[in-house]
Design a protein that fits this description.
6-stranded mixed β-sheet; globular
């Protein structure tokens, strides 16, 4: 397996472990001194143990669905839907790798919103989705 395939497989394993609640496997992808940033809240978490602790303490019932993983070399992007207590949040995770481990991740979150009437006549539904009006 080449480096590209190994990295993509590691990311897929990370997200599957997140869905399964397997904290050890979920966080094996990070270096000991990895950094996780949440730009919307301004939070930075430093170190694999800290990243795992903040996720492990989350009170919501969470589920993870990967929409797409793409990348090359040391920069990879995952588009996901993370459902918190039944409410979907769209997420983009940008992972920077060094020696096949994540050294820095930035996650952006966006809530679903309805399409305004002015765009409905121009839009078509994304595959597997329906357009929700505003």
């Amino acid at each position: 397996m080449n480096a590209h395939a190994r990295t993509k497989a590691a990311i897929e394993e990370h997200w599957q472990a997140s869905e399964n609640g397997d904290i050890e496997v979920e966080h094996a992808i990070y270096t000991d001194d990895a950094v996780l940033d949440y730009p919307q809240s301004g939070e930075r978490f430093r170190g694999r143990a800290t990243i795992a602790a903040q996720r492990g303490g989350h009170p919501a019932d969470r589920h993870f669905r990967v929409l797409r993983i793409t990348g090359r070399d040391d920069l990879w992007v995952s588009e996901c839907v993370i459902t918190y207590d039944g409410a979907p949040s769209y997420s983009v995770s940008i992972m920077q790798f060094a020696e096949e481990r994540v050294v820095h991740e930035t996650q952006y979150f966006g809530d679903a919103f309805g399409a305004p009437p002015s765009r409905l006549a121009l839009a078509e539904p994304m595959p597997g989705r329906q357009i929700n009006g505003a």
